[in-house]
Amino acid sequence: MSWLKPVSGINSEERVGFKSPIVMGVLALVVLYFFGIAGRSGQTVFELTRKQDLIQLPVFEIASAQLGVITGVIMLLVAVVSLLLSLRNSKTPIWLVSIYGLLGVTALLGWLAADNTVPVVFIAGTALVLAVPIMLGAMAGVMSERSGITNIAIEGQLLTGAFMAAVVSSITDNFALGIFAAMFTAALMSMVLAVFAIKFLAQQIIVGVVLNVLVIGITNFLYQQWLTEDGENVNFPGTLDIIKIPFLSDIPVLGPVLFENRITVFAALLIVPVLWFVLFKTKLGLRARAVGEHPLAADTVGINVSRTRFWWVTIGGAIAGLGGAALTVGNAGAFGREMSGGFGFIALAVVILGRWHPISAALAALLFGFSIILRVWANQVSPGIPTDFITMVPYIVTIIAVVGFVGQSRPPKSLAIPYVKG
Amino acid sequence: MSSPEARFNQAIKEILAGGLTRTVLSVILGFLVGAMFMIGSNKEFLEGLTYFFSRPQDSLGAAWTVVSDGYGALFRGSIFNAEAEDLIKAFRPLTETLRLGAPLIAAGLGIGLAFRVGLFNIGGTGQLIFGMIFSTWVATRIELPIVLHMIVALIAGILGACLLGALVGFLKARTGAHEVILTIMLNYIAIYFFSFLMRDPALLQEERASGNPKADPAAVTAQFPKLFGDEYSLHWGLVFSIAAVIVYWWLMERSTIGYRLRMVGFNPDAAKTAGINVNRTYVLAMALSAAFVGVAGANQALGTAIGVTPSSHAGIGFDAITVALLGGSSAPGILLAGLLFGAFKAGAPAMQVIGVSPEVLGIVQGAIVLFIAAPPLIRAIFGLPKPQTTNALGAIRDRFFGKGGAK
Q1: Domain extent at residue A270
Q2: pTM of the predicted model as reported, rounded to 2 decimal places
Q3: Can you give the three-state secondary structure of chain B, one letter per residue?
């Protein structure tokens, strides 16, 4: 009765390795040396509030190198804590990793902006706005991969959403309709993926890649043939209004970053915890995860594997469509050729970096959003620095994560394996 | 033994169920989908629709005109231009197709090789860029005599791509990380690394280039020479790509390495049981796959007299996936598929001139591979029979070509 044995990796004791403390320690030393001891001279000014904010905080000024030393030492301490945790065979909690990351980011900002100011609210706010399409794309990825279908087509879903939101909003002059159209069309596209994967048993990665090619082809064609000819009428949606949530948006720093945004950002901030709740705290989520891990077992207890997979992929597509809408009506204000520019592939990385967990994935999406704005901003404050390397960091981090150097990233067991009812 | 008639019917069934029929039908369907988009975005057709039932010929005529004009321009731009002044110019489109198809073929072979081993190499772009980096470095920073310089630069390009591919294979074999994610991430890293190299004059940047990332043009000694004189821009890249096709065919169909690769692709567990080191095969497969992509990288770096820029990879690494899919990962298939998509690239400007957006070819390309990717769909559309397990066709072929006859 071999199948009665517990599935390995769930109940059995897993050794927590020393990879996390090693990586954290090395990075802390890098920060300590390059940003601190060998850092740049000059004062860095952190602007915590904007001029129009209700509550004004004083600016925070510190010597760039000094900040590097301080953050480097604290990061080293966090690495030591992580080492102690590993010695007691327990994992480094995600909040500690987040604090560590935040410290590293502060040191980087302080180093870049020597003799300059850091507009904290602007950077954090823009990072969030830029992260939203990636975040929502990643949620689509989490939903379909948790139920066992590889979704490489996120890029295409984002592009579909971006296109439909811009065009339908422009034609109908109604953002709600535009966003609905974006979600609906992206969901339709996901249905194609789902049907090919579930019914035709096609290779999921191939179908995903091909759908991307097709959507890029279609949107490029329509853009060239239609949107550039008649741009004023069909590709001029403008952007959604920025909504200020009363009181909450007056909280210093966090207020303007989180509570003074467009509806697309609020939607993302809502969808992430809701998806976490559904996935891990409800029967619905348990079923989806069962289908992704062990479809035969799920089928045996009466869960309809095909239907579950179909709907999780489809609804995921709708969420990615919203992410696409966030690109056009939620940020740029018009559709541009191939404007998703690889965000869908980044979302794929984010899913893995977040270990198929909605909240970790959302944090990972923020990392990418941050790296995008940092590249732009770093070019302005210190032009000499090779920003290409800053842009590379999230991708390298992803590779480090994927090769299992920061803990194992274990995909759902039956990912990409079609289920044929026996 | 069944009657000759039954055997003949069985053979027909095998042809209909075979990959070739499916591929041809997919290509036809792809062009039809493209035609639908051309018609649907045509103004005269849409105006005609408003009174379609009183005068359908207006709409239908407009539809016919736009499709025949569009695909006519594609033909003129990619194969033979009957409107050209002289014969030399008339054949230029064909040479352009060959020139643009060559890197697609080479890169398609690389992706196809990975497919045969059961790997998805989405990293064509990154590998191609590494090939370009190495080739460009040799071609601009080293002085060597003519011919030798070109060969060294070509080999350097192959090696550069090979290194990146081997890294992916190594990481996969060592840690079990999925190659799709690794290759996608390395694509971005390669793009940014390339643009960094081209921003620094000490590395690859052109001396006169101000700020914008651009590399020095390859030295004349390292450039691929023109194949048919200066009338045509077709160069030796085509020869190297065709050589790659032959090497690929020999490697996959005739060599022991190819046998091992295919065996792992067919069933890794069985291969392991048979004593094949699957992990080492993955490293080898990714390295070989990238090596073919490297030929395309060298082609991009050495096939032009102007310096490379960050966009010189021209999306070939990604298009190669569609080439390999359409070509069924076989040497002749990839050759033909690469030429088809090369023709799309060559014909695009001619379509632009007559006012049909050449982007429609992207749709055709996507639609073709979408149909290829789901054989049951094509079978359902055309009512084709299921794949046959018999070998009546082979028996007939044997009888005609005298291989001992059908038994």
Answers
A1: 127-356
A2: 0.88
A3: CCCHHHHHHHHHHHHHHCHHHHHHHHHHHHHHHHHHHHHHCCHHHHHHHCCCCCCHHHHHHHHHHHHHHHHHHHHHHHCCCCCCCCHHHHCHHHHHHHHHHHHHHHHHHHHHHHHHCCCCCCCHHHHHHHHHHHHHHHHHHCCCCCCHHHHHHHHHHHHHHHHHHHHHHHHHHHHCCCHHHHHHHHHHHHHHHHHHHCCCCCCCECCCCCCCCCECCCCCCCCCCECCCCCCCCECHHHHHHHHHHHHHHHHHHCHHHHHHHHHHHCHHHHHHCCCCHHHHHHHHHHHHHHHHHHHHHHHHHCCCCCCCCCCCCCHHHHHHHHHHHCCCCHHHHHHHHHHHHHHHHHHHHHHHCCCCCCHHHHHHHHHHHHHHCHHHHHHHHCCCCCCCCCHHHHHHHHHHCCCCCC
